[in-house]
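Convert to structure. Protein one:
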Amino acid sequence: MINKGFIMLHRELIDWEWYTDVNVCKLFVHCLLRVNYSKKKWQGIVVNKGEFITSYDKLAVETGLTVSKIRTALSKLEKTNYLKVETTTTYTKISFPKLNDFVVEVGQSQNDTPNDIPNSNEVANISQSNDNHLATTNTNNNLIKNRKKIFRDKVFSHSTFDNIILESFFDYWSELNTNKTKMRFETERFFEIEKRLKKWAANERPKMISTKVKPELLTNR
């Protein structure tokens, strides 16, 4: 199995109705990790974005839950319209009716990669990214605001740099485009915060030194 990329869970997830149901919450997060993020084909069957092919037995192995607990958890999620389950004699297809309420693509996503399942050539994917990522949340409101907060937290986690450096770095790279849909750093193909910060700090130091007040020379004593 090839696992690349990552998702980020919004803190509002703790207010989700199934958060305190350990089995349901665990299975739902697992499905978010397994879902396709682009259209694929599996044995002649179209598997759209927001869907993936699996089986009850496979889900049990992947999550450590029993098949019975998998069935119960899926039933709860399906009744509350968080998942849709289609089962045949050979496979089970799980889909997210409201995928956009939970997964928001930020920046440049990559192509899907195959994911093997027992007795099949199931196609699944987790999108690749660097600091441009898939941000998982349970709300579509204030997406830019949330992403800016995430980016700021990541920048200021590099506490070895001076706060003035971090602030100026964040202000520059969080600037929004004309449509106010992306931050400057999200338009970059590659973006490693630490490496960028080192270059930024090296360029900022001469400016900081030059702005210091020079001691006044006293000629009359």
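Protein two, convert as well:
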Amino acid sequence: MRVSVTLPVMGAMVAISMVALAPQAMAEPEVAGAQVVRLMSLERDGMNGVAAHHVSRLTRPSGETQAQQVRYDRNWLASVQVGELSSEASCLATALYHEARGESIAGQFAVAEVILNRVESPAFPNSVCGVVNQGAAAAVRGRCQFSFACDGKSLNMHEAEARRTAKRIAHVMTDGAPRALTEGATHFHTTQVSPRWSRVFERVTRIGSHIFYRDNNA
């Protein structure tokens, strides 16, 4: 940690300065003494500043830290440490992998926002897994909110890199990251289709091949 390196270095700098001032101290004790006091004051201020900085980082909840630091790029996402996912995060990761793995990082975050926005809407189930699997129990093609849930294909995530990306995004988003991309959107579709509801809901943005909408009546 920087604390273990910075503080001794600062102390050493003051010590060196004091040694360098020794001859001057013999000739001009009052001037040298004032300089030593100033250096010690600077060291104290620096130590206090470093301590406060690191204490705030150490005491801040991990979710809050990630929420404040989210960046929509692969380099940042690769730095996110993910352990075993909760059941909710696992459902979100599965949806991201099958619905959006071909999108950019921002595009995948945007789809995650839609799912979480639905969880908070009274028009949809109140859990991530409920939202992701809505309609799947009917086992009727076209009844699912997300096509992968009832298209009969395997839910396994075979592509390793895409799987890691989906899990990291799911972890960050269920850990409280901000939803800053879609303005509360609860629906999206690809540019290749034009569902009827797209003519009713408010279009808020397009990211990659997905267009996002908000149902203002929900």
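The beta strands are 187-190, 202-207, 210-214. Residues 1-27, 46-63 have pLDDT under 50 and may be disordered.
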